[in-house]
Specification:
Layout: H1 4-9, E1 15-17, H2 26-34, E2 39-42, H3 48-61, E3 66-71, H4 77-86, E4 91-95, H5 100-108, E5 112-117, H6 120-128, E6 134-137, E7 143-144, H7 150-160, E8 165-168, H8 174-182, E9 187-190, H9 192-195, H10 204-212, E10 218-221, E11 229-232, H11 235-245, H12 250-257, H13 260-266, H14 290-305
Parallel strand pairs: 1-9, 2-3, 3-4, 4-5, 5-6, 6-8, 8-9
Antiparallel strand pairs: 7-11, 10-11
Helix pairs in contact: 2-3, 3-4, 8-14, 11-12
The structure holds ligand TUI.
Length: 312
């Protein structure tokens, strides 16, 4: 499965594990990289020293390349951006904003930069600024979402830029990966399926909610506040959407989401917490190790891609 993405990153398979806030820590990232994909540590809103320790732990667990995802709304983003360079992290992905001010520093230090974008305009801008690739993330994804679906976004971004495009949002098996290749992607990023792997450290309740989820079980809260977030429906999303439909203020809504992801991931409170997951959760039925998952994905994809000549 050699593509521009495997060559760029020095990895075996063009499968990137999403840099999920509170979820993507050193054990998961190292397991994905060991299995031939690219593992990511999600810096989320964590302090820079937490990120540094996670990077150091991942280095103890794997010699293979791994990366860090910076959530650009984090109050610690500036410091985390420097930790990337200081700890000699090979790859950085960014989410929920524009990473322009860090690009020169990262490029000068040999870091591969892959911004996550949700529009053609942002993809073109990132290419102009020197990004090595982009992740085009459709709104099927969990967490912070844009407007366009993966089906519409990926081919439009692929036509608009020369740098390789990684597809994200709604992908959890070989059919999704093959479809992404057909749309012009050179790799995929997956989040939801990696949450239920053995190496993922989230609370068991979180995994069970994903395994039991049906096709129509996600909701997007916060469209009115400008921070749309997709999560599995529960008491929190029900209350949130009810308040939102009544025109509640940002402050009032925020009391429902503050610390919500932490509540679900760490405490296993999947009723009142924010169980972020993508629309593909309904397809995720089985727990397995990262190695088993990646092996299975590669097998399924290969069977579908045979004869297309899209990758070696
Ligand atoms: O970032 C994500 N997904 C996330 S971040 C996150 S942490 C969080 N927790 C609670 C509330 C809100 C966030 C959970 N999930 N995906 C990548 C992504 N980035 N999707 C869309 C974008 C994006 C949006 C706007 C990228 C660039 C952008 O540019 C705006 C600008 O500055 O022009």
């Amino acid at each position: 499965m050699k593509t521009e993405i495997t060559r760029l990153l020095g990895i075996q398979y063009p499968i990137i594990q999403g840099g999920m806030a509170w979820v993507a820590e050193s054990h998961l990232a190292a397991a994905v990289s060991e299995a031939g994909g690219l593992g990511l540590i999600g810096a989320a809103s964590a302090p820079a020293e937490w990120v540094r320790r996670q990077v150091q732990k991942a280095k103890e667990l794997t010699d293979k390349p791994f990366g860090v995802n910076i959530m650009l709304m984090s109050p610690y983003a500036d410091e985390v951006a420097k930790v990337i360079v200081e700890e000699n992290v090979k790859v950085v992905t960014t989410g929920a904003g524009n990473p322009e001010k860090y690009l020169d520093m990262w490029k000068k230090n040999g870091v591969k930069v892959i911004p996550v974008v949700a529009s053609v305009a942002m993809a073109k801008r990132m290419e102009r600024m020197g990004a090595d690739a982009v992740v085009a993330e459709g709104c099927e994804s969990g967490g912070h979402v844009g407007e366009s679906t993966t089906m519409t976004l990926v081919p439009q971004v692929a036509d608009a830029v020369q740098i390789p495009v990684v597809a994200a949002g709604g992908i959890a098996d070989g059919r999704g990966i093959a479809a992404a290749f057909m749309l012009g992607a050179k790799g995929v990023q997956m989040g939801t399926h990696f949450v239920v792997t053995d190496e993922c450290q989230v609370h068991e309740n979180y995994k069970e909610r994903i395994l039991k989820a049906k096709d129509i079980d996600t909701r997007v809260t916060g469209r009115s506040t400008g921070h749309p977030v997709r999560a599995l429906r529960n008491e929190m999303t029900r209350k949130y959407l009810e308040l939102e439909s009544r025109g509640a203020s940002f402050e009032e809504l925020e009391t429902l989401t503050l610390g919500g992801l932490r509540k679900a991931v760490m405490d296993g409170d999947v009723k009142n917490g924010s169980v972020m997951a993508g629309q593909i959760a309904g397809l995720v039925k089985e727990k397995m190790s990262c190695e088993e998952l990646i092996k299975r994905l590669v097998q399924e994809t290969d069977a579908l891609m045979k004869g297309t000549g899209i990758y070696e």
